[in-house]
UniProtKB/TrEMBL annotation:
<keyword id="KW-0560">Oxidoreductase</keyword>
<feature type="domain" description="FAD dependent oxidoreductase">
    <location>
        <begin position="30"/>
        <end position="382"/>
    </location>
</feature>
<dbReference type="InterPro" id="IPR006076">
    <property type="entry name" value="FAD-dep_OxRdtase"/>
</dbReference>
<dbReference type="Pfam" id="PF01266">
    <property type="entry name" value="DAO"/>
</dbReference>
<dbReference type="InterPro" id="IPR036188">
    <property type="entry name" value="FAD/NAD-bd_sf"/>
</dbReference>
<protein>
    <submittedName>
        <fullName>FAD-binding oxidoreductase</fullName>
    </submittedName>
</protein>
Amino acid sequence: MDLKSGYPFWAVRNGLGEPFPGLAGDVRCDLVVVGGGITGAIFADCFTREGLEVVVLDQRDVGWGSTAASTAMLQYEIDTHLIDLARRYGETAAVLAYRACLEAVRKVRARAARLGVDQRESDSLYLASTPRHLAEMQAEFALRRRHRFPVSWLEVDALRDSYGAEAPGAILSRAGAWLDPYQMARALLRSARRRGARVHDRAAVQRISANSRGVRIETRQGAVLRAPRVVIAAGYESQGFLSQRVAKNRSSYALATDHHVVGRHPAIADTLIWESARPYFYLRSSGDGRIIAGGEDDEIDVPARRDARVDAKARRIARRVSQFLPEVQLSPAWAWAGTFAETFDGLPFIGAHPQWGPRVFFAMAYGGNGITFSHIGADLLSAQLAGRRHPLSELFSFKRLEHRP
């Protein structure tokens, strides 16, 4: 599966990194993680720190799938409004999901700092795209404030004075961050390897079989792995392991400017900016003074057609940014695109699926909160292995599909 188009900024910035060895021979371990992107890396890091013997398999170079195309905005705000999740699942469950993401942002950022990964704390400015969105956004703000999320409401004049932004209103949250996703994935895997994990590039899974005694995995290269459990953390390719379609693939587009742009707009240096329209545009700064912006999602997930749209989409993103931030004129230095998957309610699918039974665990951290969802997923599986009930195990499970519209 071709997951990206163009040449993502992170690979230019970091270089491709050292290769991990291929897998030769058969292996027994405590846990196999299928996928060496940011999600698989989070799981490997978590469980090696808990003392498990972990093997990570990736069919391409580690971190070179969707992770390399991610713009890695860390937000507790889920793509689906808190008020909409409350209507669907009840206020208690909705608030629990948002609070878990809030805590995950803090923990991911702390882990990145310990590993020396480029990261930064940021505000999150959520702009009303049109006056028609104001009533819904004000209701969203009121619900978040009632549950003591760190939010304030900005009117037109405050937006213009503080950010040079032109919008009917906005929710300002003081609990966001960003990081370098490619650097983070590789740093986590190196850390896991120092604790004994085996990480293998170019090890494509051909067949998985599970029974009451454990899981057997065969690679296309002829190796066989046996373990009590496996985590399918292969990003958007994870759906290939299920006969049931659980998310819709799309294409999302992004750009990065030259390094001097943020210095001309200091108000947005520490702010993630996004909008209420769906699909939405968004932007953030980088550690070296660039602006990274994205959006213009479409329903085309055909690599050749996506490739042909990258440059035109980047120009449209730049124009879209200037509509909300008239003083910010973007000139793309890099442009790329990648596969992006959405679930029907904006929440991840984390846990076992009836097709495979309890020993095969899926970490399908889809949507704009992929990194925070992945961190929650590692906590969830850790609780499951310890015989504890995680408070989000039901809400993030595949049982939600029974109520899909």
